[in-house]
């Protein structure tokens, strides 16, 4: 039996994918999980995230950001507006994110530069207001880590869905209060399983990134599936499920202050 103290620290249940059966998705999550952190990916979704957190107070927690792949094409005005909205609600959120850079999808030099600029704006907000930072960094994990070196007031940092090298992971773990998050992707990705073996459970968070990263392409992922990531982590790390549950839940509560 898996106890109900798992947390999905990163998902997007405000997406239209969940419109039709939203209540059922939340119900299934409530039966197994103790909390869900929903991450906004633009200003509209950020407001939806705040509304959900209000409606499901004590279960859904809000993290507000701007996804790098969409923000790179947004106007300066849209970015500013999203940042002001974020600052207006900073007291009610558990993290700034997801924000970051994605060099997997984006190879164009000037767009990468633009991502860096936008990410820096959000880094400054997290640093000024001393709020945890939830990062999407893909194929640029080391660069992201180097950028973080300029900010000393960001209280906690989460590398969501980390897929970088073990070498960079070790550098991340050298810094207190930096965490690495594993998604349901660990169920099928050998690479992530290998990584998880080397990372102490005390520094691991669990997530689904729903509706993404389902076990099959046809499937829609949902928060309750974080159970699968927990199970796989327990196998990979040779720990019992209860321990993985307990420790990752404790980590998440510490990181987000919930
Ligand atoms: Zn995400």
Write the layout of secondary structure elements.
Blueprint: E1 6-11, H1 22-32, E2 33-39, H2 43-55, E3 60-64, H3 68-71, H4 76-88, E4 95-102, H5 109-128, E5 133-138, H6 141-148, E6 157-160, H7 166-173, E7 178-182, H8 190-198, E8 204-206, H9 226-237, H10 241-256
Parallel strand pairs: 1-2, 2-3, 3-4, 4-5, 5-6, 6-7, 7-8
Helix pairs in contact: 8-9, 9-10
The structure holds zinc ion.
> Which geometry do the CA atoms define?
globular
Terminal Cα separation, in Å? 25 Å
Q: Structural class of the helices, strands and pairings? A: alpha/beta
CATH topology category name:
TIM Barrel
Number of helices: 10
Structure commentary:
This protein is an alpha/beta fold. The chain has a single domain, classed as TIM Barrel, CATH 3.20.20.140. The protein is built from ten helices and eight strands. It has helices at residues 22-32, 43-55, 68-71, 76-88, 109-128, 141-148, 166-173, 190-198, 226-237, 241-256, and strands spanning 6-11, 33-39, 60-64, 95-102, 133-138, 157-160, 178-182, 204-206. An eight-stranded parallel beta sheet has the order 1-2-3-4-5-6-7-8, sandwiched between helices. The mean pLDDT is 95. The protein binds zinc ion. Zinc ion binds at residues 10, 12, 39, 98, 209. Residues 10, 12, 39, 98, 209 line the site of zinc ion (ZN).
Task: Write a compact overview of the structure shown.
It contains 10 helices and 8 strands.
Descriptive tags:
binds zinc ion; 258 residues; eight-stranded parallel β-sheet; 8 strands; alpha/beta; 44% helix; TIM Barrel
